[in-house]
Amino acid sequence: MKNSTSWALTAGLLLAAGPAWSQTAPAAPAALSGTLRDAATGEALVGASVFVKALGQGTSTDENGFYRLVLPKGTHTVTYQILGFEPQQVTLTLAGDMTRSVKLGAQRQQTREVVVTGLRAEDNVKKPEMSVNRLDMKTVKLMPALLGEVDVVRSIQLLPGVTTVGEGASGFNVRGGGIDQNLILMDEMPVYNVSHLFGFFSAFNPDAVQDMTLYKGAIPARYGGRLSSLLDVKMRDGRQAERLTVNGGVGLISSRLAVEAPLIKDRTSISLAGRRSYGDLFLKLIPEQRKNQAYFYDLNVKVNHRFSAKDQLTLTGYRGRDVFNFADVFKNDWGNMGASARWTHQFSPRLFGSASAVVAQYDYGLGVPNGTQAFDWTSKIRNYTGKADFSYQLGANNTLAAGVSGTRYHFEPATVKALSAESIFRGLKVDDQQAGEYAAYLDNEQTLGPRLQLQYGLRVSVYDFLGSGTAISDYVGETGQRKTPVNTRTYQDGERIKRYANLEPRASARYTLDLNSSLKASYTRTAQYVHLISNTTAASPLDVWSPSTNNIRPERGNQVALGYFRNFHDNAYEASVEVFGKTMDNQVDYVNGANTLLNKDLEGELLYGQGRAYGAEFFVKKSQGKLSGWVSYTLSRSERQIDGINRDQWYPNKYDKTHSLNVVGMYQLGPRLTASASFAYGTGVATTFPNGRFVYEGLVVPVVSGDARNNYRVPAYHRLDLGATLKNRPRPDRRWQSEWVFSVYNAYSRRNPYGIYFRQNEDNPRKTEAVRLAVFGSVIPSVSYNFNF
Amino acid sequence: MKRFPFFLTLLTAGLALLSSCTDVVDVELPEPEPLLAVEGNITDQPGPYTIRLTKTGPYFQDQEPPVVRGAELVLSANDGTTETLRETAPGVYQTRQLQGKIGQHYVLSIKAEGQHYRAATEIKRIPGIDGLSQQYKQNEPGWDNGIYAFYNGPELPGAGDYYRFKIFLNGELQNDPDDLVVRDDALVDGRYIGGIELNSEPLQPGDSVRVQLLSLPQDYYYFLNEMFTQINNVGLFSSPPANVRSNVVNVDPAGPKAVGYFAGTAVRSARLTIQ
According to CATH, where is 2.60.40 located in chain B? Predict the structure, then answer.
């Protein structure tokens, strides 16, 4: 009897001690995993929080709505929540690895609609990642838009650390980097030119985009190939559980139509979206203009198929194009296209893998179809990429990620053909080029105690410049001047000409100060092997990408960032202060008067140097409640030093802006009406002013003392935009919902200077004058109508 | 001829659809240090050849630039001939005997205001012009109805030729900044250059059209090309403002620089009176 009591007591003690023991030595935890979906549509919920409050442990769902949480065995209450949905609490007993998928129901309508970057509010403080901004399309659609065209790139330009050389210019500059230093991924397809209509609109159809994430630093080791940022644009996959949904819109510039539908319930879904501008349809009403065409379009398609809970296949396709035809006199068109296939597999609740195949292309054509000057000119860059990525939950405190990728590039810089026998043109081909880029990475997210979390990894990239059966040269000559080709030799197709390799360590750390604040630090090293050859203020659609060659070395960047992150009022406000410093080497620039097109000896006209940027970014964002939006202020400097420019001295980049302030606000005035406003202020871009002149054969030529570059500033830029979205009264008997979107761009009609230029007076050639060019010189109102059913 | 280049120009024209606007603004610029400015040619046509020396002035100063008087200019050819130029008017220096020849290299030595400069150039080969022709265009897309003049002539086989076209309408050189037309032969090497229009607005019967074709040394082509860029440098796709090159080099590398160009060109011309 006594013995049995003693046994029972011992067993009881052991049982009681059990959980404590497993907490201190987490050798036998179990993984809880699953997928979070929208109960109404079946769509995966990205960035939802999954946590066990009692343990203070949590995670968030990935791009497929998938989550994994390693917990001690036992009974737990797990909370699933994401803004806009009713949170759910599930109590479960974890005896071993288990799967639990959850569907969340939407909250009341008006709370759901105003969601500013509603993803992972507490991640601002809790994740080791920093220098990251997320925007979801619902937010972007509420912001005032130029001519009613909801624009991904314009909204990116309102974030801290992001600048542009001017409105209407293609692309964006992140923390003092060039526009070609942004890795822009549409799903997994790189987008080489993000613009329609020279830069006035972006290549992303708003109805096809789910959300986007901009990494300005601390870029995960999984991504590489560009120096300054990663813009990851996720497209809608229409994982509909229920029914066919149609979204559409009619605007001043373009019309849109998007369809999302289940093909096989709970297994296969499709999302199709198209957009076309139709300014040229009006041209057809004018007899002389009937033969002219000027339009752009994009088509997006994404198909998702679930073979099982563990296997999923996603196919994505994209084509966007701008077309200009001036009767039979001149034609020009350009655009991106791409396709990707991605298979994801869950090997176990701890091991998750994916494999992808991607092809992407940018090309343009231009020509004169008829007459003695008939020609056809084409240019193209295309890449084929294959990659595999894995993530593995190692114990309770480590999440490993590893992967490999390989890319083959084909460059066709220029092919010009004469189109008729009497054409004056002989035709010209700038030799094709090829290259391979390979990478492998290993990354670990490690929790060290309750306060410290680390993410560290290494990316190894190897690049081969390959022969194409054509001649290549070295270039010699005086620095700062055009160089001449020497030592010209021929390499076989696929033969390696030059290999470069780079180690790219990435690391970031989060140290929790208290429940609502943390300190973070990061170091990022990046390498870039392809370069946009552009010597104009704004990149033009005719600019060509060049590989790194025996002459052009890969660009390398180093960035250090420190930040303080704090949330207020139960995560209603997210705030951060970040300081960063960045160096960039092997930056490409151009000799004066460089000819970057149709030039067989382009490499002789390039100059090389270094860049540096540093600054502080202040950001406050409010995500909940009737009023939402953000305020961002950036104090920064971006400079470069190129041998052969500005007497080899450092000078500010064109897009250097000392001060940049952005305020974006959205206010829910009633159940049907939302008003919005955004204000932008920035130091004027840097520019070069001449101060002297001479007359050569009757023409006045400007002279810049001391060969200075970017020695002046154009006046400051500031602009207010206003917008309002009015939903039509819903009819309970109809699925049709619609809304009117009004916006006023440049509300107080400021003539913001794009640049200041110097020229002869048209009437009196001897007189010279300074001229301010404003891209938009007036208020630009617009209205568009959107519907869905 | 104006339609010939218009690759990027048309792209920029597309932007005119949008409501962009320009206006003249006041800008304060610091006083520049005056530099020697050289403008002059030697051609394969009979002389005299003229060199003008002036000084650069403040950008907004619209008076005649100050001339440089009393300079010593010596022009020598690589066949050994040498001539000292005479100042025939303030700042204007001319040859008397020297005859430019295709294939010759020339060096101009300038001693002015205590500095010594040198400028080297050559006269390159040039094709002949077969003649100009006229054609009436009616209801052709891209053309206003009316009479147009066209250039016809061969281009010499072998790449590396550079040309400037000067167009005179009724005796007047078309000399707006965008009338500066320079071309290389990379795309047209050895082809027959026929049917290239010379006027963008229709001509009337009785109008006279004259074309001067100039062959350019490569460096002078770069000079004129850079000059074209800098004096037409407005808009979204403008290039970085920068100083145009010069072949006038101070013998003392630390001494003040000079601007402008002394160029050798061969010249051919053709004329047409519109019927």
Answer: 29-123, 125-257+265-275
